[in-house]
Task: inverse folding
């Protein structure tokens, strides 16, 4: 009965509005959950992909990075080769991660800043943290959130934004918008990684002057140890850690300083003559630093005897092109460097380590996390993603695997007289199947096709040969059929407007 009530209330969004009134029962057996997701961390930037047991499962060469902790962690985890960030951009991914919905429903179709009031996490959405909270968990958020429309609500300067640049990107998230997280140490978005800042549960600002991933792992360890009685040790916990590096800017680290650039940019589609090429050294150094910070959390879990009953996930919001494909844009494209993200899940004794080619999409993460924690019955009805937890427990589970993942790119739409963005333009949709990548771009005015990308990722894993749609009509037809199904199912603007309906059967 309680479960049915949860679903009913969850579907109406009431829990999100009421705050968390957690039941006290069923706690001892519930697993803890820690979800760590550094920003802009591409799947290829993990050393183990070049090692035995892993390299034969993928058709790309791993980046020449040192990730000793992830290498060990991968051997204890289910590791996905093909997890996709559908809308590979910070805020839209985070909206999907938190709500289990695509950007057209989560409230976040565009990156959040103060000129985009149409892009902000829906206050009435039931987020993953609302569900954990209502299931009796203590919920804690650390690091970058970047899912809120910044408003002039600086706790120290009432009536002002937390930063002075225009538009403001950084944001303070007040208690009523924390969706069940009862412990808070977070900020919106801010890219001085050695001079980060955070607002705590009570809204006090902290400026620790420490490289942010290591500062955050230290705070997580302190939380796990329950220093200062910040959590109820009788309750299970749900922790999200949004580390900002390896996101740019790239500077200050010496680990790969003397290595020739063409020994670092090993992908055949990369151009080591690009101005950005120098950044590779620092991107990879940040990757190694994140690996170390992640390792500190793992060490604390073990030291405290919490490792056995804690589900640990390592993921990212999107990748980084890093001189591949001659693009300056690190993300927001359908290239594998941008869309393909790490996804590793460790749950000792409950899931057996292996590599799996499940094409997990961003909105699938929330229901899958709930499924892993035994809360499948509490997945809100509004969620669009699927619960693939049974496949993590048993690769032969009787569950239909996705045929691919949607690709989504949105741009600013109409602006009002004040320059505020009031709508979004759905500039591209595409489909990544096990074998192909397709992306279709439309004209802003007449919504006709202006550009296409089509790659045979099996024969051309570095996506160097853009195939003609004309010469591959059967392939395009199949991909458009799959894409049309999903666009209809999620009620996407392309489906609603019948965009390219001569190609896409809705
Ligand atoms: Ca990001």
Result:
């Amino acid at each position: 009965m309680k479960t049915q009530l949860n679903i009913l209330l969850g579907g109406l969004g009431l829990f999100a509005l009421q705050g968390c009134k957690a039941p006290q029962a069923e706690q001892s057996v519930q697993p803890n959950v820690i979800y760590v997701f550094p920003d802009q961390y591409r799947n290829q930037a993990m050393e183990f992909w070049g090692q035995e047991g892993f390299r034969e499962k993928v058709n790309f060469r791993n980046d020449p990075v040192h990730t000793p902790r992830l290498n060990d962690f991968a051997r204890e985890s289910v590791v996905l080769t093909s997890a996709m960030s559908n809308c590979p951009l910070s805020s839209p991914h985070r909206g999907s991660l938190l709500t289990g919905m695509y950007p057209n429903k989560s409230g976040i179709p565009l990156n959040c800043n103060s000129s985009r009031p149409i892009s902000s996490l829906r206050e009435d959405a039931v987020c993953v943290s609302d569900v954990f909270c209502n299931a009796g968990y203590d919920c804690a958020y650390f690091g970058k959130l970047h899912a809120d429309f910044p408003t002039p609500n600086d706790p120290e300067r009432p009536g002002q934004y937390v930063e002075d640049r225009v538009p403001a990107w950084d944001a303070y998230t007040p208690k009523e918008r924390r969706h069940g997280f009862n412990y808070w140490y977070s900020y919106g978005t801010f890219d001085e990684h050695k001079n980060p800042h955070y607002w705590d549960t009570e809204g006090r600002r902290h400026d620790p002057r420490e490289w942010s991933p290591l500062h955050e792992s230290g705070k997580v360890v302190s939380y796990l140890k329950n220093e200062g009685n910040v959590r109820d040790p009788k309750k299970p916990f749900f922790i999200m850690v949004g580390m900002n590096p390896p996101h740019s800017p790239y500077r200050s680290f010496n680990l790969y300083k003397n290595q020739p650039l063409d020994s670092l940019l090993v992908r055949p589609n990369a151009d080591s003559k690009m101005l950005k090429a120098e950044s590779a050294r620092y991107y990879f150094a940040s990757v190694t630093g994140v690996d170390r910070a992640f390792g500190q959390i793992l060490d604390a879990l073990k030291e405290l005897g919490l490792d056995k009953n804690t589900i640990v996930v390592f993921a990212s919001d999107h990748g980084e092109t890093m001189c591949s494909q001659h693009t300056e844009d690190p993300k927001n494209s359908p290239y594998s460097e941008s869309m393909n993200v790490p996804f590793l899940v460790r749950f000792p004794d409950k899931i057996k380590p292996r590599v799996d080619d499940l094409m997990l999409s961003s909105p699938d993460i929330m229901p899958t996390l709930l499924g892993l924690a035994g809360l499948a019955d509490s997945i809100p009805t509004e969620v669009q993603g699927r619960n693939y937890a049974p496949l993590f427990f048993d690769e032969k589970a009787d569950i239909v695997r996705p045929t691919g993942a949607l690709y989504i790119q949105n741009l600013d739409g109409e602006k009002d007289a004040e320059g505020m963005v009031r709508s979004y333009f759905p500039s591209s949709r595409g489909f990544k199947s096990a074998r192909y990548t397709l992306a279709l771009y439309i004209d802003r005015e007449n919504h006709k096709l202006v550009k296409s990308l089509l790659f045979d990722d099996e024969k051309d894993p570095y996506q160097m040969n853009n195939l003609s749609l004309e010469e591959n009509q059967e392939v395009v037809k199949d991909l458009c059929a799959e894409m049309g199904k999903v666009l209809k199912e999620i009620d996407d603007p392309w489906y609603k407007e019948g965009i390219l309906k001569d190609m896409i059967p809705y």
